Amino acid sequence: MKRILLTAVTLALVLPSQAFAHATLEKTAPGFRERLPSSPQKIVLRFDQYVQQLPGSVHLYSSTGSVGVERVVIKGRDLTAWLPRLPKGAYTVRWHAMSGDGHVVSGVFTFGVRARAPAPTEAFGASGPTTSEHLVRWLYFLGLALLVGGLGFRLLVLRRPLPARAEKRFYALTGIGALMTLNVGIAAFILRAEDALQLPFGRLLYGDLSPIARSRFGTAFIVMTLGFALVTAFLFLAWLTDRAVLLWPAFLLGLVFAAGLSLSGHSAADAGSSWKSELADWAHLSAACLWIGGLVQLVVVVWPLMPEARRVAFLAFSRVATVCVGVLLLAGIYLSILRLPQLNDLWTTGYGRVLLVKIGLVSLALAWGGLHKLVAVPAVARGGESALPRLRGSLLGESMVGMAVLLAAAVLVDAKPPVQPAPPPPAASSVPR
Amino acid sequence: MAAAGVARVSVAGVLLWPVMTFYTNSAIHMLAHGAWAQVLMLAGAVELALVRGKLTSRWWRLAMTAGFVVSGGAFLVHEQNAWLFQRSAFLHHLLGWTLLVGAIFPLARCLRPRSQAVATGFALTFVVISVMLYCDRDVAPVFGHISPLSGTPHR
To answer: Which of A51, A108, A199, B34 qualifies as a cystine partner to A203, CB 3.0-4.6 A?
Structure first.
């Protein structure tokens, strides 16, 4: 009986899906991002409950500016806006309505007339990524590095059982990474939605985010949030049960779900993207996370808490880091050539200039890492124990530069690469008659 | 038995993530569900760790108190209408305050972990909240609309 009661309580807690007090948009005509063969006569928004009309309930924008809506009527649960004849192009609809409980609900969606409709994050009025978004993306990368890099370090470098204090600190660092990944992901989604909806925060709280959730970015957000909740659960179970084997599914799932960034960013959406660019982007990100996350574990866990393991861990990490840096460079060069086919794009475009800053920081990190590889590793391998205590500061410096590289990467991801020239038309002789 | 109970709280936290990600028709629901998922996951995880001996300080039980306070706060912040505006407004206020007042039980468990009265109050809070959550569903045939300002029932 008790078990049944507890199960019922759990189900009641996990199924509060209908507890919505205010109006929810059920469907629209035209649909989200629908491509229409001709101009629609009207826009219809159907809600799950009755709504009241507000001044300017429906605003329509073409790619050049506002398009007057002829009249707006409310009938039952339908809010209908009658339109003039629309020429070919992409259109953005911004709507507001007061639901029965007094809350003003709002939303945005796009459609195209004989043209492709942009994603809602590129709707008319959306200004694009802001400084806050750069910062949030950087924190997301740091969270990923702490989580995935930390797990990789534990499984590939520090494979032996750890002393209790070191184990505790390892789980604290990776746990912080997991919570950062989940929460910063939510913040990134809300910021992107805020830009698309163009609403003050109070109104944004009742804004309809479903068009953004249905975009490529939104799908990646949903999959990655669910995936990293699962990774967090595995990490917790590994700690709770003292079974390090459970770190393997956490690590592998972490690597798999990190691909959500590659499958929703420039490497997947921009001209010239293919499975190769997506794979390169994922390898680039994963290698960076393993390198920087491993450095942090080395500095924060091994050096202060496991002095007897410093030598072995440093030499083992050096081998893993060499592979990571190789992958990072190869993938980075491939992606740079793909996105900036002209060399002068590096200094004539905003994207190129950010890339130059990133290349400068990567060069500094590589020089630092090279110094470790060429000077410190042979000394430590020869048994030079005196060098070990001094290495911590140097490793800390290298990880700081790595974090600065991630900041440049965050700005780069939010920047727009230059539009690539269209491929030349086929030669006359090759055109079929 | 206690371990099975807290394991369910933790599982409920994990399973609230799909609710958060798939119900994106308003930012406030997404944020409330996200906060709720995390505090449930953390509170359940802490209770499991206490049962298993990974955590020893009784003050860790404050995580459940924090879970109640955050959940109650999420309900109250989300609801901007008065108590008697309509059924869901009434229940949102009631749920929020029940959770906030109910937070006294996990708090008392820190001080008196063996008290049967405190344990019973803690368990009953979950039962009461479950019944309220059921009533909060827009299709639940209880209460109906309270204020004429909230309009006719829409289902």
So the answer is: A199
